[in-house]
Structure formats: C-alpha cells, structure tokens
Design a protein that fits this description.
It contains five helices and 13 strands. The chain is α+β, with helices and mostly antiparallel strands.
C-alpha cells in the first residue's frame, strides 16, 4: 500500500496515557526512528523526589498507586543496590540527556495520581524542544478535556511531520505570586489559571481563568495571595496552526 502511494515512512511520533505515557518516554531511548513523543498524564519523572513530595504534600502516597505501595515497591529509606538499579532503569529522568527529541507533556490539573506542581522536579532538566499542555479541571482520564488535548496534540504532530515551528515560551515564576511570560510568536490570547485549596491538595479544586493583557514585550500575571490556604497557578497561551486552535502552558506553581 505504501509503494502504491509512493510513501516512505522514516519516522514516528508516539503518544499514550498513564502507563502508555511512561512507555512514550522510554521507547525513544532505544528506538531512534521516533522523532517526537507526547507522554500524557505521567507527571512523575524523578521517581524518588516525586514520592517524597507526595508524602510532604499529602502526608501519604496517592491511593491511585496502591498497587505499587502495598507491595513495598516504593522504598522510602536507603535502597539496596538492586532496588536502586531497578528504579533508575524505569525512571525516564535517568535518560533525560538522551531524550533530545521534541516532547509535548500533557497533564490534567486535577490528576489523582500526582501532586499539582510535580513538574518542578524535572522540567528544567529536560533537554531539547519541550512543550506543556495543562488540561484544566481534568483528572487522569482528561475527562471533557480530551478534545482540547487532541488539538494541541495535532499541532505537535504537524510540527514533527512538517518542521513547522511551534512557539517557544519562556517564563519567570521565581517571584512569589507573579509569572512573566514571553513567546517567540504572538499568541491570540494568554490566560491565567488559578485554583485554591485549604491543605495543598488541589485534586478536587476548581480551576478558573482570567485574561492576561500584553505588557510591553510579554505578559505579566499577578496572582492575588489568598487570605488563607494555598493557591496554584499557571499561564496558558493560545495559538492556531493550519486553522487548528491549540494551547501551550507554563508549569504549575503552588504556594
């Protein structure tokens, strides 16, 4: 069929959710035919730090990973050499210097598996072109946000297949309750998404958005500090490619 259509396939873009997202991270390490990857709802690179973060934030591990915790597969104390070897072999973070291909990370803001700001333990260490899509008010299955996610996934596939550039986002979230965003191409709109929680557990929180106006050469979002409790926030920039609307986001910050 390929010969009849005069087509030559010399590369692949892969994607998948949850454990398939895990596979979408690991497969490019060994198969160089893969030219781009889009892991979905596997926001847990740097396993050991992530598990400590769950304990520090929630006081316990997510109930969603009980298949692992109930069998003692997550070691809190000192690991044996075999345990360490197994963890490093399975953790995509181990291969971050090899994973230089374009990557789109798609996550739900209310994923029951992961802490809302889990990405801070690995994002800055990822090498090569990298993009984020946060799906607001979506859990591990992305729920009603699937179509929203597919639009950005389509833009990413177009980028990988044709070389058509996606915007490069840069942001500074080092100042409390403030995010500065710049983009290599002007977005149609930038929105600030926020959610509040009494106890740093944002899994059941409601996310709402407000538009952020252009401020000089970029966008400056100032977040109202809550009188009590905690707040999480990120920015979304909206674009189009081939008349398809899609979004790219910053990492989520929790205060």
């Amino acid at each position: 069929a390929l010969e009849k259509r005069n087509l030559v396939i010399d590369g692949f873009v892969i994607t998948g959710a949850s454990k398939r997202g895990w596979t979408s991270w690991l497969t490019p390490v060994v198969d160089k035919r893969i030219i781009a990857t889009a892991p979905i709802v596997i926001d847990t690179l740097n396993f050991r730090d992530q598990m400590k973060h769950q304990i520090n934030t929630w006081g316990k591990y997510s109930d969603q990973i009980i298949d692992y915790t109930s069998k003692g597969l997550i070691v809190e104390g000192e690991e044996s050499e075999r345990e360490k070897h197994l963890r490093l072999m399975m953790d995509p973070y181990t291969y971050r210097q090899q994973l230089t291909l374009p990557k789109l990370l798609i996550n739900g803001t209310n994923d029951q598996y992961w802490v809302v700001d889990a990405m801070r333990f690995y994002w800055s260490d990822l090498v090569g072109p990298k993009y984020i899509l946060q799906v607001p008010n979506a859990g591990h299955d992305l729920g009603e946000g699937v179509e929203y996610a597919l639009q950005t996934l389509a833009a990413f596939f177009i980028h990988a297949a044709t070389g058509k550039e996606l915007p490069k986002l840069d942001w500074d979230n080092t100042k409390d309750f403030e995010v500065k965003l710049t983009s290599s191409s002007k977005p149609l709109q930038v929105r600030l998404w926020t959610a509040q929680s009494d106890d740093k557990d944002f899994r059941d929180s409601k996310w709402t958005s407000t538009e952020v106006p252009l401020n000089g050469s970029g966008y400056l979002a100032k977040i109202n500090k809550p009188e009590k409790g905690h707040i999480a926030y990120y920015l979304e920039a909206i674009y189009t490619i081939n008349n398809i609307p899609y979004s790219l986001c910053t990492i989520t910050t929790s205060k």
